[in-house]
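Before relying on records like the one below, remember that each one covers exactly one chain. Contacts with other chains, cofactors or solvent are not represented anywhere in the record.
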Amino acid sequence: MPISASPAAPLVPPRVLTVAGSDSGGGAGIQADLKTMLAHGVHGMSVITAVTAQNSLGVQGAWELPVEAVRAQYRSVVDDIGVQAVKTGMLASAALVETVAALLAATDAPVVVDPVGVSKHGDPLLAAEALDSVRQKLLPVATVATPNLDEVAQLTGVTVTDESGMRRAAGEILGYGPRWVVIKGGHLPGDPVDLLTDGTEEHWLRAPRHDNRHTHGTGCTLASAIACGLARGQDVPTAVRAAKEYVTGAIAAGFPLGAGIGPVDHGWRL
């Protein structure tokens, strides 16, 4: 009898885990992360740290999950499915920051830390007393940290007004232990520029500024896109450059929702 060939096993895409808060409006947080991961062809998984009531006008409420619930979600995913990269976002409290940092330290995968402090509308998403935990516990386990200028000021006290200030801020953040940092300079005047550095190499990433106010979710989206590149085996500069290009396109395609600031378009390439 002829021997039939056995069907090939289906290919498993790279697996990326986001540890972050839920955005009920769908533009940022866990929802933005998973959309970004789908757009990059990886399998996205999630650990929800907090639930927010949020829309285009701001954050109307936020409720953090118990430490036990966050730890159980993480162990459930990592112990069975495994991960090629992890991205963190809103962690809300010192207890959650320290719990997640300990979990990450025991996981053999690159980590992208978006040290979320405030929302696009200025709503606080991290307790003030958690800043020391971010500095001392979370940043030291980061492969890449991606603070914006407000988060730089929160963490270091450095107020950035120009590109030389971005270099100083990068040095301050690197002092807390991440291997690389991306200082996001999109709030400075002129075309948006980000600085990627490990303290030795410097990469200045420039892009045109799009006249579009619908930019909700940019920080979450950038960090998730970097994690996707790292999960695919890219080095940090390659992953960050590709993520910057993706986010720039998503901002250009951002669309209005509700009465306030709409989201970037995570599916713009599709």
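The chain is about 35% helix and 20% strand.
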